Batch of 2 targets.
Target 1
Amino acid sequence: MASKIPRAIASSGGARLLLLVAGAATLAVAALLLCRHQPLVVPVAAAQVEKLAALATPEALGRELFHDVALSKNRTQACATCHSPDYGFADPRTLPSTGGAVSLGDDGTSLGDRNAPTAAYASFTPSFGKDAKGRWMGGQFLDGRAATLEDQAGGPPLNPIEMGMPDKASVVARLRESPRYAAAFEALYGKGILDRADDAYAAMTKSIAAFERTDEFSPFDSKYDRYLRGEEKLTDQEDLGRVLFFSSQFTNCSQCHRLRDIGGAEKETFSGYVFHNIGVPANTAARAVNGTAPGHVDHGLPDGKIVIEPALAGKFKTPSLRNVAVTSPYMHNGVFKDLRTVILFYNKYVSKSPKRQINPETGEPFGPPEVADNLALEELKSAPALDDKRIDALVAFLKTLTDRRYEHLVAR
Ligand code: HEC
Ligand code: HEC
């Protein structure tokens, strides 16, 4: 259909025809352009019309911004670089030096000290606060330091080791370079918005957050969701893993990795978002190359500077387990590569067997916790040891939490 639109319709007389043909989504943008007495781009190719239409909502604008390298100083990096929609919205780049544990910045040299978490399902994270038991929970980032997705989205462009822009005004100047952005921002956030740096920057974060709240980030269409809807069956092994995961007798997983009151409810995100110290060892390999000062400790929650109490040191926000099979490596510092290793890590707290203290990725015993205080031992020691059959079943179950679009990435 689109290719049949005659070029001549770009004249104002053809504008009505254009609106009819190109559909309702175009209407808002095109009408706006007309009522401002600005001529439509001449000639309007059909593809261009569709592109304009694509920015007609905050979500559509946010989608474009999320993928736009213009938000970084050297124009090499977008949000999607570290949160790739093709790889579970995590960072798929694997630098040999770090095993992909931490992300490379726009300057091509800076490395972070934390593993880029998935941005999928992040809209389900409650805002930072205390739960009914008085425990800190929620907020964006692994230490909860951003109250909302909007606050979070404002961080990376100005972070010197990420997108590296000097200030808000320079980011907004980049937005002004694009006539499409200019039109979309004016239409959505008011005339002259891009002339006011703070307001424009806030509008940008609103759009990105709106995009992050769409179903593209949270489709709930994994095999597990399809199983819950009666559309598909789990294998015996996956089903054993499911039973173990939600049981309070055989594992401790759902004490921390459960949002809904009832295990097995729909739209489960597999995190209660409470902060815990589970004793993750430092990632010495990543630290050897990322320039972290010797002796540096990532304290998690208190390093976010929202709440600073010694009793909170070592606590990180419990992550969602959605798409976990495609977002390796694991933990806040990417210290483990394999899902099975993660389960073995938990199992070492309860197994008395010396061989169960070994990290199969290093052949050495699991390293000591980066922060030895405040360990969640009550929860971590509340389950019996797992045998290989149960360990494998849990891994198989975690793989069923993969959104349909990533299923081809999971080794069965
Ligand atoms: C250079 C890589 C990089 C870029 C670029 C980047 N991020 Fe991130 N992102 C990270 C890392 C690393 C973290 C965790 C940092 C922390 O907790 O301190 C993170 C955390 C997040 C979180 C929090 C997830 C959670 O569960 O707490 C969201 C949401 C997010 N990023 C979205 C974005 C958006 C939107 C952009 C673009 C404006 C962006 N990121 C750009 C690496 C990146
Ligand atoms: C005491 C609460 C608690 C319990 C119990 C618990 N977890 Fe976790 N889990 C966490 C926290 C907190 C993290 C993040 C720790 C960090 O990054 O330092 C985490 C991380 C993970 C990760 C890595 C996710 C990622 O994207 O990096 C997986 C996988 C995981 N847990 C699975 C499980 C399974 C399976 C069980 C049961 C055998 C379990 N957890 C039990 C709190 C818990």
Note: Strands lie at 129-130, 136-137, 275-276, 316-317, 358-359, 364-365.
Target 2
Amino acid sequence: MIRRSFVAAALALSLVPAGRLMAQSEAIDAPMLARIREEGLRHSQVMDHISWLADVYGPRLTGSPTMDQAAEWAMKTLRSWGIANVHQERFAFGKGWSLVRFNAQMIEPQVMPIIGMPESWTTGTKGRVTADVVLAPIRSEDDFAMYRGRLRGRIVLTQPEREVNMLEGRIVLKMNEQDIREALSEPPPPPPAGRGGRGGPPGGRGGANASGPSLQQRIARFQVDEGALALIERGPDSDMATGGSDLSWQTQKTDGGTFGVGSGGSRDESAGTGLPSIVVAVEHYNRMARILEKGVPVRMELEVETRFYDETQPRAFNIIGEIPGTDPVLKDQIVMIGAHFDSHHGATGATDNATGSSAMMEALRILQTIGAKPRRTIRIALWGGEEQGLLGSREYVRSHVADGTAVKPEQSRISAYFNIDNGTGRIRGVWLQENHAVQPVFQQWIQPLDDLGVELLGPRAVGSTDHASFDQAGVPAFQFIQERLEYNSRTHHTNMDFVDRVQKDDMVQMATVVAWFAWQAAQRDAMLPRRTAGTH
Ligand SMILES: [Zn+2]
């Protein structure tokens, strides 16, 4: 917890031009806030939503059967609260994929059960196989000669071993004074072209460019042509994770059986043609590599079964629902709250993003339970395909807000979109997305949330999640500032993103804060101010 005096001082120093804080006063609906707080803080059901999504339905990989099952639950639950117009909006995605079975162990020179997980959209081994393991870290085409003829029928370790450090770095990121100063400061100049955003083209990594196949693709082709049986990797070379959005908030990855795993294959017509590809815990990987370096043979037993699903109807979807507006003039205007509903497959997507989806659902439940009758319509959107490149929110924007330069009806009717996608940590404020005109508005909204730790309005534009789709279409769109906690060190896209890492008190706070923001935005006389053109 930071000292109030520090926040006040930091705000005063944050280069905000004089006059920005001299805005008209916002109507603060104190009786409504009291009811939202009572329902949200004392009768919260948010942990129950998270447990249903993450424990019962588990990984919600877009296009997979568990994504459909989780969606059925969410829609049924929203309807049971009386949320109106609950429906899916489906969009084309490509082939679906799910993991059926995975077992791996080293069997020579000793038995060692291996912690690992196949990458999504990769193939199986056609039953249980036993094979020699070979260390073949190919870094360039020059290495092909060295490994030609040595991969056939073998399980290939594709990287050199990686140094594993003690956990002496920062693991849990609770914002300190320096982090807060950074959050409150103007963002750095835009990075050079080619940086930022999420990696890789859609449909798998290492896409081709104008000059032909990428190095990644040429290496993959070599491994297939040489007859390798399966590929094994241990994740990135660094055990440090960045905070994203040009924030210097680094944390040390925990290792110790925890690893990141995402997509390793394509969803298009070429789906299912590559090799089985598995990420394993770095310690297990390193042990096998060190044994092989001594010239001692390593054998593994491996069984991978995966399933692909044809796209007979559009496989992906967004879930939409709303509390209809009641003001004769304003009810066609919309305040949107949303979060991505999908996850990667490595664990259960508890903090990425059952937390965000559940907080948004709970915010609607709070408002509905206390009988809120908003002037504007409050709409929830639970997105699909976020992990493959913000596909769901982009599709929503394309069909309702703006398709390129073609403006659609909701562009002028959505007052704001609020998003959550940074894990389980409580809301500390809002990233203003360089929309400085909302600063005095939000400043007044967060004043009565002081005791809940909501104090920060950070000017910078953050990216890599669904509010960016709306932001690009000119709609005021915001990601809340959250405590990152273990998000980047332990849970984000890992095999250990389970409900145990979700922080109950923070989740209760999060849903309550969202309900308040949605209510204030829905009741305000005017829509929220839009960013002046050309400032972003
Ligand atoms: Zn996410």
Note: The chain has 14 helices and 20 strands.
